[in-house]
Amino acid sequence: MTITLQDVAILLGLRIHGLAVIGTCVFDVAALCEELLGVIPPADAIRGATISLRWLYLQLSTPPPDADEVTLERCARGFILALIGSFLFAGKKGVNVPMCFLPLLRDLTHTATYSWGGVVLVHTYRELCRASLDHSRGISGCITLIQL
């Protein structure tokens, strides 16, 4: 059975038509986190262009009861980033999230216009290809699509 864009749209509810999910992973992680999440990760939470999912959950999982709109948006960005890094583009170990997705969450009203389903499908097939190599020891990506 082949996984199709329609499968991704139906099973995950992701948009398959829209803007391409493109960007760069060349930026200052600490400055980007401060701007869009309102917190600067400690040096031990940053690994290249990724940050620790555990740190992200601890910092932004529960907004304060009297949070203003800016704080709620920052927590929403953190939650969406964690969802992207732990489910849609999960790594083999599942401990870090790529920060290249955070700039796409800058304007949350614009985030829904991206074709997230298309990029999830492409990433899943790329990871299936990598997992089929002799030296591979695991698989990453949106494994839910493969299991169903």
Name its key features:
7 helices, 3-stranded antiparallel beta sheet, 148 residues, 5% strand, single chain, mainly alpha, globular, 3 strands
Description:
The chain has 148 residues and is mainly alpha-helical. It has seven helices and three strands, in the order ααββααβααα. It has a three-stranded antiparallel sheet. Strand 1 and strand 2 form a beta hairpin. Helix 1 packs across helix 6 (116-131) and helix 3 runs antiparallel to helix 4. The longest helix has 20 residues, at 69-88. The protein is globular, with a radius of gyration of 16 Å. The termini are close together. The model has no long low-confidence stretch (mean pLDDT 89).
> What spatial order of strands do you see in the largest sheet?
1-2-3
The radius of gyration over CA amounts to 16 Å
- Give a short account of the largest sheet: 3 strands, antiparallel
- Low-confidence sequence ranges: none
Q: How would you classify the helix and strand content by structural class?
A: mainly alpha
- Measured as a percent range, the helix fraction is 40-55%
Estimate the mean pLDDT confidence: 89
Give the count of helical stretches: 7
How big a fraction of the residues is strand? 5-15%
Distance between the termini: 10 Å
Number of strands: 3
Which H/E pattern describes the elements?
A: HHEEHHEHHH
Shape: globular
